[in-house]
Design a protein that fits this description.
seven-stranded mixed beta sheet, alpha/beta, 10 helices
């Protein structure tokens, strides 16, 4: 069998921070942390390889010298630990308001999954998105005016409308931020979201002022597309094969790692 070394496109400082978090977790929860099958560093490399490159868990287990069951357990444990450091919505909006941010953008994205047979009360596939014609989970993403993702919501089934998901997870907080002078820009799917959430006008026969507003609003909102590109640059988010509810932890983990890599936003120690 041929063996070789490979590099991972993650800053060393990011890996060391995650390793410290895992070590703290083991000291707090393990009765005999020294009897673990793999070191904290090995566990860090495993979760980063899986997140960044979508490396098969069987390969991760083989490379770490552990069983596949242990590899899955270590993967989920690492996702739990890292995702706990994800930015808080209220704190994030407060910091942006205090920093004088002019506006934020809200958009939903579908994280594709394997086919899920769970049904709604009406008998339809709960995790199937008619809009995208695919199975997946709906994740609401909040960005700053540059399009950088500053917060991600817990996942909702793919059949959930963006407005419904936003009402569940984010609208109350952005309404407060709007009252403090920082509105939210969103697409037509969020019409009716409430005061402070600015959406384009609908209709085919719009007046000159309405068309001008839509063009201006669309240009201001365009950078928000950057957020989905940054998050889905983590290959694990291109297609999730785990329980779709794990998307909540995966997207939160991706945001934490992105923040560590760029130094964009503070994370919990």
């Amino acid at each position: 069998m041929l063996s070789y070394r490979a590099t991972l496109d993650v800053p060393d400082a990011t890996a060391r921070t995650v390793t410290r978090w895992l070590a703290d977790h083991r000291r707090a929860h393990d009765i005999r942390p020294h009897q673990r099958a793999a070191t904290c560093w090995s566990q860090t490399v495993m979760v980063l390889r899986w997140l960044v490159e979508a490396t098969n868990v069987r390969v991760l287990a083989r490379d770490s010298g552990i069983s596949i069951a242990t590899a899955y357990r270590y993967l989920h444990e690492a996702l739990d630990v890292i995702s706990q450091h994800a930015p808080d919505l209220i704190d994030t909006l407060k910091e942006l308001v205090e920093a004088g941010e002019s506006y934020v953008c809200l958009d939903g994205t579908l994280i594709h999954t394997d086919r899920v047979d769970e049904r709604s009360e009406s008998g339809k596939h709960l995790w199937y998105s008619g809009k995208h014609k695919a199975f997946g989970g709906n994740v609401q993403v909040l960005t700053d005016s540059t399009g950088y993702p500053v917060w991600v919501a817990p996942v909702e089934p793919g059949s959930t409308h963006d407005l419904t998901a936003a009402r569940t997870h984010v609208l109350g907080a952005v309404h407060k931020a709007a009252s403090q002078g920082m509105p939210t820009l969103a697409d037509k799917g969020y019409q009716g979201a409430g005061i402070g959430v600015k959406t384009p006008f609908k209709g085919k026969e719009l007046g000159i002022k309405q068309e001008a507003y839509n063009a201006f609003q669309g240009a201001m909102r365009a950078p928000a597309e950057r957020a989905n590109a940054l998050l889905k640059d983590f290959k694990a988010l291109k297609h999730v094969t785990l329980d779709p509810r794990a998307i909540t932890k995966i997207t939160a983990t991706a945001l934490v790692i992105l923040n560590l890599n760029t130094g964009y936003a503070p994370v919990l120690p």
